[in-house]
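<discrete_fold_record>
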Amino acid sequence: MAGRLRERLPDDDRILLIDRSFDGTLGLSLLWIMRGWRAAEDVRVRPTAAALPGVEMIEASVRLIEPERRVVRTDAGDFHCDAMVIALGADLAPSLTPGLAEAIEAGSAEQFYTAEGASSLHGKLRDLREGRLVVLIAALPFKCPAAPFEAAFLAADLLREEGVGDRVRVDTITPDPLPMPVAGPAVGRALVGMLDRYGIGFLAQRAVEKVDGDARELIFKDGSREGFDLLAVVPPHRPPAAVAGMGGGGWISVDSRTLATGIDGVWALGDATLLSLPNGKPLPKAAVFAEGAADVIASGVARHLGYVAPEPWFTGYGSCYIELGGHQAAKGEGNFLEPPAPQVTLYEPSARFHQEKADQEADWLKRWNV
């Protein structure tokens, strides 16, 4: 976003990029860390001034945003602006599911949405010699609709490599009726078929109420229970605390084509947003859409500041890879803003799609680690 703005605005317009840490992990590589194909250090992202020339990079934690006044309050002081773009992401909140944080702390469960969690889960998978691995979606919404099912495929692949694939049962459990429901029932049914072909179970419309880490048991809201020997979990997500009152139940409501928030001079993109599709479902929280939104918002900001720029228009076109193991990946691709519902095609697994993802990883690492 900052880079796109720098390309469009005159040199004497200041662009401030505020981040609590300019040292992170490439999200698309997290499951490869879990699989053991990457180490966390291999996929660290450390953008510097050389990667973003002409952008003032300010390391600070955002405490409060006052969008109507266009003020950002941080632990390094307050910042006032003529235009604001909010990209605070979504926070992981295991404590929102009773017992989950305690199960993670005790070691009977682990999440794979951070480099530390993915690395820890890799070790736990290698130690698992028999029993049942459950990949659980604890709550909706969550980042990357394909991630829990990729996790199941790659965990099963690792277990086969360890020689215990026939002694460990792998199941996925979700509150949704199908995997990736926003992509449509055809894509969901195709993914269920892939899971079945790889010997992975799929339990739908199961909303977890509590995790009993000591008994290694999941208790669901319908009263049913499921046991596990190891739990790999998508923890509940919550909107950033620094933003409130912008609609969407804490998530930031944005216009589906311009990403404008409805407050003059304020836009938002990425996982903190709620963008409603023509069928009423939310746009998935995925990096491909955040990256596409950056160019749209850059035009909107430039026009807001009085410069000539293309009219903002977010297409809603996106794609994602679903890793199956054995360096094979399927690919889902289509237009998510197509009325009356997203038009998405799921392509059969191939080595080419796995390589496409590896090339994307390499491009992003090269782009930022200057």
In short: The chain is about 25% helix and 25% strand.
